[in-house]
Amino acid sequence: MFKTMTRAAALSALLLTTAAHAAPPTEGSGVAWDITAGLTTEIGQRLAGSDREAAARDWAVTRLKALGFESVRIEPFTFDGWVRGPESAMLTAPYPHKLAIAALGYSAPTPKGGITAPLVYFPTLEALKAAPEGSLKGKIACIDHAMRAAQDGAGYGPYGAARRQGPSIAAAKGAAGVVIRSIGTDWQRNPHTGATSWSKDVTSIPAGAVSNPDADLIVRIAKTGKPMSLSLQLEGKPVAKLPSGNVVAELPGRDPSLPPILVACHLDSWDLGTGAFDDAAGCGIITEAALAAQKDAKALRTIRVLWAGAEEVGVFGGAAYAEAHKNEPHALAMESDFGADKVWRVQFDFGPGNAALADRIAASLAPIGVVRAGGKANGGADVGAIARAQKLAVVDLSQDGTRYFDLHHTPDDTLDKVDPAQLAQNVEAWRRVLAIVANEAGPLGGS
Ligand SMILES: [Zn+2]
Fold first, then answer.
1. pLDDT (tens digit, 9 = 90+) per residue, 415-432?
2. Which side of the chain, N or C, has fewer Cβ within a 10 Å radius?
């Protein structure tokens, strides 16, 4: 078709294409937008345990008080965290290439001057598991995977294991270091960071993620069979006993004897971007929806918001909340932590006594394009511990995750990616659910 176009038509087609790739409108309005814009602009990156995470807690307290929340407080805790250091990676053989890399959270530091070692490619985590014991001694393992974008983010669980468990498995086989293909679905030259975890019986090693285009490069070279060598410098390191805290605030209901509705997001972010999708938007969504459903005690039950600390590095805030509030009954838990794109699905974990309530919620959401699906709601990371301990009723509002893992834990997780119209749809879906559950006088419980 281009062949027969005039130059002017071709140029206008090109401009249209460019416009299609431009960011969504960057100006929104309302509480959810203001929180998302404020946190990402006035605080920015807020790695768990950092001064910026502490500044974010103070920012949250001021903001929640100004919005009319009561009992606004910081519930402090400490945790064993990790700080980033200088980092670089260079393929030194068979062809020299500087790679885009980010250390994984809890990576061990490389020795001064870094390490240079043969790079051994594994197409899957299963292939790494099958490598003989000791076979990686003195080598750097490269772990690949094939995660693809999906509305429900289904690839993150199975393929994410390359990040969560891969480095520990490589270390157990003697590896001196490990690089993984970023757990992401984009084609940008952005590494995706994220935490890894070490088995008790292994000594941690330097571990990083290379961008998807760099992983593609490694794959092309690996296919030739030519020996590869990598120079790796990752100076980030674990640090014990860092300060964090949860920010908790309430909108009291008319009947304080009824257990509250708990709604959560997380306040910390990874340090490469400004944590707009992950998870400033979640804090904005739950807060505006709680206000819409409950300001001036419109509803029976108290709605409590939890802006959890230190989620990204191991859900320490969720664990601290569950411990601090274990003797206090809750009614129902919900969480927003999957970006800011439209809610498309609702799932429940309700006891048999709450079946009619689930029907009413589903009917209320259907007109705004949210479908009821089978399967059990799981609540999310931060409310997980308290929901399990108290067998709480749970409602999951699933956001469209098609582009979530393009941005997740990258330098590109910034405000311009948040579409104000989709953010507003999230708030409306949450408001509808909260307006119903916070007015439910009867007992609420999970299965
Ligand atoms: Zn998150």
1. 999 999 999 999 999 999
2. N
